[in-house]
Design a protein that fits this description.
The structure holds two protein chains of two kinds. Chain A is mainly alpha-helical. Chain A is built from seven helices and two strands; from the N terminus they run H-H-H-H-H-E-E-H-H. Chain A is globular and about 50 Å long. Helix content of chain B is about 25%, strand content about 15%. The chains are: A mainly alpha, B alpha+beta.
Chain lengths: ~140, ~550
């Protein structure tokens, strides 16, 4: 499996999403590789995940449980997950201190990561600005 | 060398927002030659080279800070966004927190679109309650114009539900039926059925909105994109470009110049306006006119008058600055409320907008929110917190849902009385686009504070009936408030030239052909979002101007 395929699978395991749009898989991998914090570690992470996921005993839930507290890979996967959820990377050392004014850093050149944020369908809503809905849909509970 | 003239016009209108657009369109339709000048960029007008709506939406999506200015702050000229962009005077007890947009379409680019009418009591505060001042006109004088403004903007509302609200009779139905309530509106309605707070029934009403509930005026119905503030991606929400575009599309169109800051109204020694001086793309120009209408919103209009020493025998130009002070409370409800779907607010409680209590404390309007815990608590923060806690995978997604779906807020928007101490003044400093810099003094008094603290108690009662899993979240700092974006009062209308800037027909007391339009006219602020009232006054002014021109000769000042 190439890096894109590996990153796609890794992202699905980390976020719980059943499928992910190919253009965002490509875009997010590129952004992470260019990120000063995540960039240097993406190669080793993808290599290690590809190896582990190929093994017969690979269990997604156990993988998530083990990687979350890892002192090196934990922070990295959290950046990956936030990027998928919101379309942005956190700007400062947000894991240490989460302040109200903490900002997310959006790609200034591409609106697709924002509109593709996974947190919106997760809450039964839509990305702000892109409802895909009909007049009055908000009167009813979400379909899922 | 004399500055080149843009030409001679019947009317020069300063400001191409909703108010400038409405007045321009009415006059140009009537055959008058109108020049509209706006300091900002040509936004969303659909002509070659204009900045498009989609470009602005794209900027919204890529901004780190998604406040009201998000689509606009990349523009070379865009207007202040919040108190951080103003200079406050040393005597300013609070900060003035509301901004405005420079550019064709103006501040309605990022307004929510709620359009309640002011109430009869709002126009007669001094007579009825012994506070504030009286307007020179009453609700009944403005009522027919409210109907026309609702038609012009395209307002969706519940006529039966609002007819007679605190004495505000409606003589015409809304042009469109109401924007549907949200799921959470209906939860709250059920919870509040038959309930009161201190003898006042907690009746939930559909908020009248300049937002299409069906295709109207060539614009689509609302599709619930939920980003009304700061921009409607599809134009279902009215914004000022509608009438600016209509004016430009007439068989005898108005003329619009953007990136054009008016630096002086030209006035003869006898006080008659002859036109304006402006900077157009940084080049000095003039434009001659038989009448000048200032519609540059309630900060820039007085700024221009102060810069020229005009219309100010009363000393009231720039004074009596008002806003509505907003506060809110939020809860985690006992059941899902499904926020972030539909417009940010579709219903409200108007029960506290009028009453004898206004002798002692400010009135307020309550809005039910469809935006979780409100603008101060973006849902991305919930996602960050849960990711930080180490959640991943399906458990993370379901936890985000579980945390966000019961979030609910109610906001209060409280009246501020006019005070001569609140206002803008020119100050020393570097000129900005050819205009002198200014500072703001704004201090909220105990009348308003008592009002919004009472509102908090009413909100507490509402939350109790709706039911929450823990105590509601209110701002513990009782001095704190956010701006509503409702800048009013700085060129107020009145019968007496010694206490007001313009008369009941919006004409400057001292300059027979200089007029002011917009929210700067308001002697009091009431509790209604001000745009509909300003639009009604604008259409009334346009009618008045048409009559003046019809009766005047074919040249010379009216």
């Amino acid at each position: 499996m190439d890096d894109l395929g590996t990153f796609d699978r890794l992202s699905r395991v980390l976020t719980g999403a059943e499928s992910l749009p190919a253009d965002l898989v490509q875009g997010h991998l590129k952004r992470l590789r260019g990120d000063p914090d995540a960039g240097p570690q993406m190669g080793p992470l993808l290599e290690s995940f590809a190896h582990g996921a190929a093994s017969s005993g690979f269990d997604e839930e156990r993988f998530r449980r083990e990687i979350a507290p890892d002192p090196v890979l934990g922070p990295l996967v959290r950046r990956i997950v936030l990027l998928w959820l919101t379309g942005a990377l956190p700007k400062v050392d947000w894991v240490a201190v989460l302040k109200p004014e903490q900002k997310l850093d959006y790609d200034a050149t591409d609106p697709r990561p924002f509109f593709g944020g996974l947190m919106w369908p997760a809450i039964g809503a839509h990305p702000p600005g892109l409802s895909g809905g009909y007049f009055g849909y908000w009167r009813y509970p979400p379909e899922s | 060398m004399a500055a080149e003239s843009l030409g001679s016009f019947d009317v020069v209108i300063v400001g191409a927002g909703v108010i400038g657009g409405l007045v321009t369109h009415e006059l140009a339709k009537h055959g008058r030659r109108v020049l509209m000048l706006d300091a900002g960029a040509p936004l969303g007008l659909g002509r070659d080279g204009d900045i498009t709506r989609m470009q602005l939406v794209g900027h919204f999506a890529t901004e780190d800070n998604r406040g009201p200015g998000a689509p606009y702050r990349w523009l070379p000229i865009h207007g202040p966004e919040s108190d951080a962009n103003y200079t406050h005077a040393a005597d300013s007890g609070d900060h003035f927190k509301s901004g405005y947009v420079l550019g064709a379409g103006g501040t309605t680019w990022h307004w929510l679109g709620s359009v309640p009418r002011m109430l009869p009591g709002d126009f007669a505060m001094r007579t009825r309650f012994g506070v504030g001042v009286d307007w020179p006109i009453g609700y009944q004088d403005l009522e027919p114009w409210y109907g026309r403004a609702e038609e012009a903007l395209g307002v969706a509302g519940d006529h039966a539900g609002l007819d007679g609200l605190h004495g505000a009779q409606r003589t015409a139905p809304f042009p469109m039926t109401e924007i549907w309530p949200s799921y959470s509106d209906l939860v709250v309605e059920r919870a509040l059925a038959g309930r009161s707070f201190e003898g006042v029934a907690l009746t939930v009403l559909r908020t009248p909105q300049a937002r299409n509930s069906r295709p109207y005026d060539g614009r689509p119905a609302c599709a619930g994109n939920s980003i009304c503030v700061p921009i409607c991606p599809i134009g279902a929400k009215y914004d000022g470009t509608v009438h600016v575009k209509k004016a430009l599309a007439l068989p005898q169109p108005a003329r619009l110049e953007t990136l054009a800051t008016v630096t002086r109204v030209l006035v003869s020694e006898s006080g008659v306006a002859s036109g304006v001086e402006l900077l157009l793309n940084d080049q000095k120009r003039t434009a001659e006119a038989r009448a000048v209408v200032l519609a540059a919103h309630a900060i820039e209009t007085p700024r221009l008058l102060l810069a020229g020493g005009l219309a100010n025998a009363s000393g009231q130009v720039g004074r009596n600055l008002m806003d509505h002070t907003n506060r809110f409370g939020s809860i985690i409800a006992r059941e899902p409320m499904f926020p972030f779907r539909g417009p940010p607010s579709t219903s409200g409680i108007d029960a506290f907008r009028d009453g004898a209590f206004r002798r002692e404390r400010a009135a307020f309007r309550l809005s039910l929110g469809n935006d979780g815990a409100g603008r101060n608590a973006p849902p991305e923060g919930v996602a960050m917190r849960l990711v930080k806690a180490g959640l991943l995978g399906p458990e993370l997604l379901s936890s985000i849902r579980r945390e966000i779906e019961p979030l609910f807020r109610v906001s209060s928007s409280t009246e501020v009385l006019p005070s001569a101490a609140n206002g803008i003044r020119l100050r020393a400093g570097e000129m900005e686009r050819g205009l002198p810099p200014f500072e703001i003094s704004f201090t909220v008094d105990d009348y308003t504070r008592r009002g919004y603290l009472y509102a908090e108690r009413a909100m507490g009662a509402i939350f109790e009936h709706v039911g929450s899993t823990k105590a509601p979240d209110f701002d513990p700092d009782q001095r704190n408030f956010s701006g509503a974006g409702h800048i009013m009062g700085t060129c107020r209308m009145g019968n007496s030239p010694s206490t007001s800037v313009v008369d009941a027909s919006c004409r400057a007391h001292e300059h027979r052909n200089l007029f002011v339009a917009g929210t700067s006219l308001f002697p009091t602020g009431g509790t209604a979002n001000p745009t509909l009232t300003a639009a009604a006054l604008a259409l009334r002014l346009a009618e008045h101007l048409k009559g003046l021109f019809d009766r005047a000769g074919s040249t010379g000042p009216i």
